[in-house]
Amino acid sequence: MNWWKGLKGKIRFSEPLKAHTTFGIGGPAEFFIEPKDIKDLKSLLSLRKRYKLPLLLMGAGSNILPSDKGVKGIVLRLSSPYFKQIVFRNNSVEAGSGVILSKMINLAKGRGLSGLEFMAGMPGTVAGALVMNAGISGRNIADLVEKVAVMDYNGNIRVRRKDEIKFGYRKSNLDKYIILSSALRLTKKNKKKIEEEILEHINRRRLTQDLSSPSAGCVFKNPGGDSAGRLIDLCGLKGKTIGRAAISKKHANFVINRGGAQAQDVLKLMDLAKRRVKRKFGIMLHPEIKIWQ
Ligand code: EPU
User: Fold this and answer.
1) How far away, in angstroms, is 206 Cα from ligand 1 center?
2) How much is the pTM?
């Protein structure tokens, strides 16, 4: 039964997810689908309901650890040109969910629009940043949100104003929807100043984070007021290796793929870090990355 026949977007079968995650890890997705536009996305949702297929959403693949065995059903990625549109209106930017953060930051800079600089160097899409409420030291994407257009899993489109969305630390209630696009409020600023701030953020990352090997950034959320990296470091786990995965020697909340790492290796390292931190500090760490079993 070729249930996908009527769809217009790109469909791949048994697609290795390791080709689409920044970790470079992940077995095959049964169906890897990039809908052409909103209508196509709606058709896909109705087919998936009719055929009772599981569905997982992928952004830029920068925060995901898929199982080595792969995933059943559909992996949905909104990365066709339709979902990558960017429009500037006065002091706002309206960006499709599949827009890559660095692209939006650079375009805003070119127009002398400030606000996004703190996300410089973050891999990921606009939708991913919104769902996770991406941020650093007290500044979050939530602060910029005017409204977000979403689709529910029945194909209904809604527009949620900022006051209708609940944002928390590295979370939001947008995770029950498929984000289509969003409007973010920016402010006019001198281009040179924007550029300087962007470079500052990128340089800070280069100095403190392990960007030389594939990873998914920080694997754990920071526990209230502390740094997961600092705690794992104090447990003496920097450099600890299982299989081809290792806890970074530069930042202990980074697990890196040293080439050919398996999801199982990463999970074992995370479990070890969790147990050691719990034993030494009585603090429970929770994953920041999404684990697809
Ligand atoms: N530290 C250590 N050892 C380590 C890592 C950190 O002692 O191995 C110490 C640092 O010296 C510093 C403190 O811990 O005193 C905080 O470290 P850092 O400034 O690197 O920040 P973080 O809390 O570890 C958070 C975000 C990062 C974000 C940086 C920006 C989380 C889980 N992490 O890291 O986000 O880039 O702030 O400063 O919220 C991500 O979300 O993937 C991510 C990497």
Assistant:
1) 12
2) 0.95
For residue 77, the CA-to-ligand 1 centroid distance in Å is: 29
Q: To test ligand 1's pocket by mutation, which of 227, 254, 276 has the most ligand atoms within 8 angstroms of CB? A: 227
What are the pLDDT digits (tens) for 49-89? Answer: 999 999 999 999 999 999 999 999 999 999 999 999 999 99
pLDDT tens digits, residue range 85-115?
999 998 999 999 999 999 999 999 999 999 9
* Residue (of 44, 131, 36) closest to 80 by Cα position: 36
**Segment 177-184 mean pLDDT:** 98
3-state secondary structure of 182: strand
Any atom of ligand 1 within 6 Å of the Cβ of 215:
no
Q: How many CB atoms lie within 10 A of CB 161?
A: 11
- Report yes or no: 157 and 196 within 8 Å, Cβ to Cβ: no
Question: How far does the centroid of ligand 1 lie from the alpha carbon of residue 43, in Å?
Answer: 42
Q: CA-to-CA distance for 157 and 134, rounded, in angstroms? A: 24
216 Cα nearest atom in ligand 1:
42
DSSP string covering 112-163: TEES-GGGTT--SBHHHHHHHT-EETTEEGGGGEEEEEEE-TTS-EEEEEGG
Is 97 in contact with 54 (CB distance < 8 Å)? no
Indicate if ligand 1 lies below 6 Å from the C-beta of 229.
yes
